[in-house]
What does this fold into?
Amino acid sequence: MNELRRLFPQLLRAEADETTQQAARALLEDALGQPPPPPVALPGDVLQPDRLNTVLRCYAPTALLQWDWLRRISHPAKGHQSVNSALFAAYLDAVGLDTPNQSPAAQYRALITHFTAYAVRTFDGSERYAQRTLHLSAELDLAFSAMGTQAAYPPDAAGNTVWLLPCLILSLSCFPAERLGEILGFTLDYCQDDGWLDWLERQLRSHALPDDYCRRLRALRTKHLPALLPYSGLPGVERGRALYRHGQQALLQALQPALTQPLNPLQPVAAVLRRKLPYALGHHGRVELHGKTLDRWLAEGDWAALRSALRQSPYVNLQAMEHCRFSRSMAFGGAMYGVFDEQEQALLRAWLQEENPGGTQVGAADLPVSATGERLEEGQFNEGLTENNAPAALINVGYAARTFDSAELIDVGYAVRTFDGAERYAQRTLQSEPATGSAAPTQDDGCRPNPQPATPAQHNDARHLFHRLLHSENHPDSLPAAARYAQTVLARTRWLAPLQPRLRRAFAYEPEAFFQRVDAIYQREMARYRPLSGRPKLPRELYVWGIRQMAPAILLDGCWLANLATAEPAQDEIRKRLLRIFADEVGCGRPEHHHANVYRRLLANLDIRLPEVSSLEFAEHPSLCDAAFVLPTYLLAIGLQPERYFPEILGLNLAIELSGLGAGYMQLIDALRHYGIDPTIIQLHLSIDNLASGHAALARVAIMLYMAQLQSQGGPDAVAAIWPRVWNGYLSLASAGLPFAWAGVQRYVGLTSGMDRIACIYPN
It folds into this structure.
């Protein structure tokens, strides 16, 4: 289970690479292959506040991921199905897209805040403990605010098993098409399992704490369970039910030590010292404890031994902690004044005064260990560093630098400065570290074939790449080809940029200039519109041909945003707007409103019969031209890499939403009505994409928020570096559509006579 902590932040990413998908698959298969765990009974008595606080911390990774296994359930190939729509409706409700403060995750954060205040009020005369509780709860929020740090929460006393259920949740989200049955079964069992919720609700009410979190979860389950039960006969549902029970029982089992052991004060102290450590080394060379400088003690990181040495030193007076040399050094004018805040000072004093803070067993996780997990003896640390005795934190330093937030980067800097040769070793580890859970995926009754490497010919063929990217769960090896495909389109866009008309040419970003540029593009497009008088310029056959050829793109409407959702997306002002756009594209949980289903009705009305879009037959269908797959393949390719191409996706999204406004769509609606063709899908985009408050407005605001974020974090240089990528993404829609536009011209030439073409160019 030790690898679960490392796997967790990888799975949290919106962009899953091949290694992560393999690890997720292996974890799911391993859990499903285990015998059913024995049921675990929760204690019936009311817990003391300190133990309840520990339980809440242990449960935090799971609580902050409620319903997150559904984040990708509206898959481009399967999201139009009624069962997917029902699950997606539950997901949107759970993340609080319109009411983010009502999401279970937000309610859980509020619960932690209330519990902190309660703990401070309750322990009469235990100021040190109250301060420690306050510190832990505050750090809990810090640790999980970005969802992905490797902070010391949950406490090691509970074991790494507390990460199993969160990792199962995130692993399921990697396979929304392949494991639809398991996802549904997992959801059903989750909705019908009231044991944990009943217990937690009793505990909270016994302590007069708010139970909004529990009530919100009950409301969500009650609301959405009836819509899901009719699909309980789907294949894989029972496996999904078993998977939920396995993860939940493992979590309850992991909570048992937390329910029976007091809070270990060594862990919060270790967390504080690790944060300060990079900036402390070098300042304490003249202070000696037991023949070693304090710098050496800090570098070794043996906090239990350091505590023992301090307690026996002249710097600490256990009978007068407030006035001893250690405390005075943190007061005004002291050598450590301003290093620790009041809460941290109280925490350190309490830690020193405790007779046995948590015992050596719990604290062992914070002591130096070798790569094999063995405790390092004095003299091994920082001397003769090898691959066999390097501390675990050092072994993963290169990986941490890529994956985790600034808290981990601090550890990276510490390792590089402290250990001779550490930087080279970290780089070597980064390149050679075996992937977590990299065992080859297994087949499941022949339904889930092992991914096979794609041939170069397939990757160069938009038709085949289109099909493989729709099934990237089974073909994760196609992701590098997706990156190459997206890069090709973006490079072509940059090459064509100088040929753009004035309003589409590059310009320096300023909020007002950008806002006005979008307005100008819209107004120019509106000014081109002239109501239809007489017959349309183009023949009906060309419109019907175009409707057929647009099927690969429109049947995947929204796919460029399908993978942007992260944990608590409604708390991110940028992603919240993008998720709102995506939700509308896929019907907000109502299959009849799903744009792909609206288009299917149009195809049926025109008697255009095509195979299911997810099938290989669709990609190879002779009635669809090669050019029809160029744009949708680009949309799929860039949408599968939302972290790498986030600036380009923002620009592309604006272009797509603006393209539905103005003369182009208005003239198309007129022509379709003239020929008796249902224009609903076009009218739908014309209205919902509006620049007042619709998708185009949301897309524009998302870009402005992103640029403001860059400005605040990196200043003008960051804005200048990223803005060209955003605008290139905007222009890429047109360049990706060029092959289809040329195919349309060729089709038009083939359908019309010379006089007809002249009449179109020079109408009466």
Notes: The chain is about 60% helix and 0% strand. The domain at 456-761 is CATH 1.20.910 (Heme Oxygenase; Chain A). The longest helix spans residues 695-751.
